[in-house]
Design a protein that fits this description.
It contains 17 helices and 8 strands. The longest helix has 29 residues, at 112-140. It has 2 domains: 3-206, Glutathione S-transferase Yfyf (Class Pi), Chain A, domain 2 (Up-down Bundle), CATH 1.20.1050; 213-410, Up-down Bundle (Glutathione S-transferase Yfyf (Class Pi), Chain A, domain 2), CATH 1.20.1050. By secondary structure, it is an alpha/beta fold. Pfam families: GST_C_3, GST_N.
Length: 417
């Protein structure tokens, strides 16, 4: 009977479940999602209540960490047969979750001052209140929640470990019975080997908070320099508000005054603002393999994207030209000279690098794709048709997960004069 447990790649609500599954020698698929790119809309939509952990067994789905932990411990001596002992364990684990709910706001708080205040309250008030009582209960019951090892003891261990990671503390140092139990759980057969195989957990709270901040991208309702950013956000599964302004009524003096440099696109994350399309595109791609770690490769990509924008600046001049005759001349120059000058070279770069600018997919290919589409619309052409590798790359980007669904939903580019 195939079993699957889905959660994030850190300890927390699901770690006690993993411990129990390993201790009881149950084979299961340990599915781990990236906490920094959560929520993933495609995964979230499949979850019964839109949250993790989720346990699957033979086509059946179970939610809620405590329900899962108790279920996977069934049929073993981790679940007592005596109803009263079961009730006592449940009363303690529900109280543990009451405590842990006080930890979560401090973890999710993006404001450093508020985060420090919340963390201080947890450490100085909530932990002593709850863990002095948990510690006494363990002392009174032979070091366990009900006189012998049970599924609830695994939950206690997991909550302590998660608190240590999120709060940067050693919670159990002042509570000897709690500390002894945690060490006992971590040294159990199956659990000990599992812990050794995964190594210690860590979390970048600043990055975690950024991933949960409200994100907003402002641009006009057509395809141009913000489209690569939209592609990147959809491909990397970042939820954001796609704010589109009607260019026919632009500039809007009231809104324009609020922009740092009076122009779009504008990206907002929490209370921070970022301008310039290339800076935004590169930023939203951070933390993924779309940004290479090698400095030389980064520089090569920067050179390529700046050259792409050298080309786009000439298209931009054509778009902004109001005089019909001058516009006609600019278009002719673009189609007869400029496009081939740049795109014959882009084609060569792609050919020499396996279809990409640096040997693998990066944020820069998204920029090229978006500006090819924009050029086609404004110049009434299909410029990639003469450049097979450029065409293949554009088709690949538009077929990527997330991008493909977005392209289908957005419909054709419409620039209303």
């Amino acid at each position: 009977m195939p079993k699957k447990l889905s959660y994030f790649n850190l300890n927390g609500l699901a770690e006690p479940i993993r411990y129990i599954l390993h201790y009881t020698n149950q084979e299961f698929e340990d599915v781990r999602h990236d906490v920094y790119s959560w929520p993933d809309p495609t995964v979230k939509a499949t979850l019964p209540y839109g949250q993790l952990p989720v346990y699957e067994e033979d086509g059946r789905v179970l939610t809620q960490s405590l329900a899962i932990a108790k279920y996977v411990a069934r049929g073993t001596d981790l679940v007592p047969t005596d109803p009263w002992k079961n009730a006592v364990i449940e009363s303690i684990v529900f109280t543990l979750i009451d405590y842990f709910k006080s930890v979560v706001p401090s973890v999710r708080e993006a404001d450093p001052v508020k985060c420090a205040e919340l963390t201080k309250e947890v450490i100085e008030k909530n932990i002593p209140f709850y863990f002095s009582k948990f510690n006494k209960h363990l002392e009174d019951n032979g070091g366990f929640l009900s006189g012998k090892l049970s599924w609830g003891d695994f939950v206690l261990c997991g909550v302590v470990e998660a608190s240590d990671m999120f709060l940067g503390i050693d919670l159990s140092k002042d509570y000897p019975a709690v500390r002894t139990l945690v060490q006992h759980i971590r040294n159990l057969p199956g659990v000990k080997e599992y812990i050794k195989s995964i190594g210690p957990y860590s979390i970048d709270l600043a990055r975690f908070n950024l991933s949960t901040m409200a994100k907003k991208l402002h641009y006009f309702n057509f395809i141009a320099i913000a489209e690569p950013i939209r592609y990147l956000l959809h491909y990397t599964k970042q939820e954001f508000e796609d704010v589109r302004h009607d260019h026919r009524f632009w500039p809007n003096p009231e809104f324009k005054e609020k922009l740092p440099y009076g122009q779009f696109p504008l990206y907002e994350e929490g209370d921070r603002m970022l301008t310039q399309s290339l800076a935004i595109a590169k930023y939203v791609a951070r933390g993924t393999d779309l940004i290479p770690s090698d400095p030389w490769t980064q520089a090569v990509l920067d050179a390529a994207v700046y050259t792409i924008y050298d080309y786009w600046s000439k298209v931009g001049a054509f778009i902004k030209e109001k005089d019909p005759e001058k516009k006609k001349v600019l278009k002719s120059e673009l189609l007869s000279e400029t496009v081939d000058f740049f795109f014959s070279r882009f084609e060569k770069d792609l050919k020499e690098n396996g279809g990409y600018f640096s040997g693998k997919l990066s944020w820069v290919e998204f920029v090229l794709c978006g500006l090819v589409e924009a050029s086609n619309y404004f110049l009434d052409t299909e410029l990639e048709k003469k450049y097979p590798r450029v065409e293949a790359l554009v088709n690949k980007i538009k077929s990527l997960p997330g991008v493909k669904e977005y392209v289908a939903a957005r419909g054709p580019n419409v620039f209303k004069h």
